[in-house]
């Protein structure tokens, strides 16, 4: 089996950073919206985020374009676009249902070869699933290199224009404030951007550090728990999802079928508890002690969960002190499947790393509670 190294990382964050005070100018407000915004921002700790729309409500980038721009950052005179053997990308917000996100990204990669493509669907763990496919392809010797990435372009879905009809006609904030908050909650949480890694079967001698992927693993709780975060469906009283295809086109707007919703109560009950349990299980399975971790990179949607996560870790007897944490949520926002790429990219080029350091990546997904992990060594 081949070894697998991350030899380069790249990111693309569209337009200028948007502060908390500027968010309303971009996304817009409706009745009760600003009150919810203040509650959410007070808890999530995010100071800046990026949107692929401008303050005039013009869309500036597609999701595929965000990914392609991050891929361009991996290229140089020694590694050109025609050298890429595999493209594996994940997102929860593709520009279209068909064709796949990877196909659309490859369509922008003029000059590349007729390479293999892979699209990973899902929510936050789709980026890790894309990384694992690339990791396994190199590990098994099927390819010598691969580009993996995660990206999101959620801002057009969060802008006021996508809420006016349902809010004005159904007055849902007054009639159903819980539904309104579940939708508003995510409006002030999510950001746009992309991150990519170049994976190769040998380290790049030009680099100060190369990152060796030791293993990747994951656990899903979907067989035990109902859906928490969803879009393109409506949740029935028994917890089942009713597909958008079961509704008429007029009901799509009236019932807010395509908005992103999250069951906040279920999220609070389950996300940390199962995250800590899955973390302990994965470390045990790989016979790796938590005390050996030098940098812990957990994807968290909000700083509200940071202390809860660390309390849960301590309660399970896992030796991961707070000073091992590396999180950049406050400066770039919650970029879903791209967040783990953006964290590791920043750490990789921070000049903090020394050979022998161990980095643990941890990505939870609240869709139906899926958790993905990777252990990385600095070479």
Polypeptide structure, described:
With 379 residues, the protein is α+β, with helices and mostly antiparallel strands. It folds into 2 domains: 5-207, 3-Layer(aba) Sandwich (Peroxisomal Thiolase, Chain A, domain 1), CATH 3.40.47; 212-220 and 263-378, Thiolase/Chalcone synthase (Peroxisomal Thiolase, Chain A, domain 1, 3-Layer(aba) Sandwich). The chain has helices at residues 23-27, 33-44, 63-72, 101-108, 126-139, 155-158, 164-170, 172-175, 177-187, 249-254, 264-285, 306-315, 329-332, 339-348; strands spanning 5-12, 18-19, 48-49, 86-91, 116-120, 145-152, 193-200, 211-220, 229-230, 233-235, 241-243, 261-262, 295-298, 358-365, 370-378. The strands form 4 sheets. It has a 9-stranded mixed sheet, with helices on both faces. The chain has a two-stranded antiparallel sheet with strand order 2-3. A hairpin with a 5-residue loop joins β10 and β11. α2 (33-44) crosses α9. The two termini are 18 Å apart. The model is unreliable at 165-174 (pLDDT under 50). One of its GO terms (molecular function) is acyltransferase activity.
Low-confidence stretches: 165-174
Shape: globular
The class by helix and strand makeup works out as alpha+beta
- The appropriate CATH architecture of the largest domain is 3-Layer(aba) Sandwich
Oligomer: single chain
Domain Beta-ketoacyl-[acyl-carrier-protein] synthase III C-terminal: 283-362
GO molecular function: acyltransferase activity
InterPro entries: ACP_syn_III_C, Ketoacyl_synth_N, Thiolase-like
GO biological process, one term: secondary metabolite biosynthetic process
């Amino acid at each position: 089996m081949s070894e697998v190294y991350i030899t380069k990382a790249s990111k693309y964050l569209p337009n200028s950073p948007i502060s908390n005070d500027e968010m309303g100018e971009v996304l817009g407000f409706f009745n009760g919206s600003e009150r919810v915004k203040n509650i959410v921002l007070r808890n999530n700790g995010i100071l800046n985020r990026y949107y692929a729309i401008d303050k005039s409500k013009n869309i500036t980038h597609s999701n595929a374009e965000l990914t392609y721009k991050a891929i361009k950052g991996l290229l140089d005179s020694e590694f050109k676009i025609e050298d890429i053997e595999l493209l594996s990308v994940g997102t929860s917000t593709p520009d279209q249902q068909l064709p796949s996100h990877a196909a659309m990204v490859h369509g922008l990669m003029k000059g590349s070869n007729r390479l293999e493509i892979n699209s990973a669907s899902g929510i936050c763990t789709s980026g890790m699933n894309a990384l694992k496919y690339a990791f396994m392809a190199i590990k098994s010797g099927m390819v010598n290199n691969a580009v993996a990435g995660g990206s999101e372009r959620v801002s057009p879905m969060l802008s006021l224009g996508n809420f006016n009809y349902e809010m004005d006609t159904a007055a849902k904030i007054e009639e159903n404030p819980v539904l309104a908050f579940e939708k508003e909650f995510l409006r002030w949480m999510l950001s746009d951007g992309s991150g990519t890694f170049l994976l190769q079967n040998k380290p790049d001698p030009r680099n100060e550090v190369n990152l060796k992927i030791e293993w990747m693993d994951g656990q899903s709780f979907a067989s035990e728990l109902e859906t928490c975060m969803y879009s393109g469906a409506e949740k029935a009283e028994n917890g089942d999802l009713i597909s958008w295809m079961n509704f008429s086109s007029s009901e799509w707007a009236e019932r807010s079928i395509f908005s992103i919703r999250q069951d906040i109560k279920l999220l609070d009950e389950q996300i940390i508890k199962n995250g800590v349990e899955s973390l302990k299980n994965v470390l045990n399975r790989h016979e790796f002690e938590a005390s050996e971790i030098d940098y812990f990179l957990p994807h968290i949607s909000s700083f509200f969960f940071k202390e809860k996560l660390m309390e849960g870790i301590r309660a399970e007897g896992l030796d991961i002190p707070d000073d091992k944490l590396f999180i950049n949520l406050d400066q770039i926002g919650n970029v879903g499947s791209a967040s783990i790429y953006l964290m590791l990219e920043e750490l990789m080029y921070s000049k903090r790393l020394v050979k022998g350091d161990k980095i643990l990546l941890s990505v939870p997904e609240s869709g139906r509670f899926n958790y993905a992990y990777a252990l990385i060594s600095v070479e």
